[in-house]
Amino acid sequence: MLTALLPLLAIVRFASAIAWGVILDQTATQGNEWTSLQFTITIPPAPPAAVTTGPWFFWAGLQPGLYCGSLGVLQPVLQWSEYSTCATNDGPAFPEVWQLVQWTVPSVNHNGNQSSVSCGIWAAAGDLISNNVTFSNGLWTQTSTVVSGQAKGASATQTVQASDFFCSPTANFFLMESELYGDAIADWNFPVQFTDVTLTAQTSTGVSALCASQKSFSDGNGNATLSGYTLSTDQRTCKWTSVTLLPP
């Protein structure tokens, strides 16, 4: 089950992944850090019927601990084939294919090496789930709400004490990823769209140059298409209207 997995949900099993990362370098940015992440994910269609092994994960998150050598991660994860042991909207009126689950995966030797896993949210193809990950007063909070579609109104929230989970409580590393396991990874055949992807830093130092340098790319395991970049007037918040993860 998911509770056995370690950062980044990928240590104990081979994964195929397209990953987009944005790192605030401590030296270059005078210790600047990401303090919040927002994004909306559109629920894709089910994997092809021929796909019988997994699991498949699509997620965006913030990773504390980059500069103390022991990464953790805060991540709202859209997942297929492995699910949380509870759901906030049990028995939906649509097939139980995709579930949004909030994860807090600790740095090594923190929180007894146990992840905190929220109850899941069942969502149907085409539904929109808004997600918010925020650091304030030593706490990390994740909130996810279905804002449109068949599961509209379903939500989950998770709050953890940062010092209990991470060797460094603040996050310098943003990561978005498709993370696919099983024997039919090559059968991934649908886009996964993240909209209104918003990263906010504590200060403006280094943010403009870093975010403006981000481009669409492929890493052989898929493609990441970025569009609609803007920077807030205080130069602390980067926003992309759309980021789409696509199969190779």
Automatic annotation (TrEMBL):
Alphabetical keyword list: Signal
Which residues constitute the signal peptide according to the record? 1-17
Protein known as: Concanavalin A-like lectin/glucanase
Species name: Calocera viscosa (strain TUFC12733)
Biological classification of the source: Eukaryota, Fungi, Dikarya, Basidiomycota, Agaricomycotina
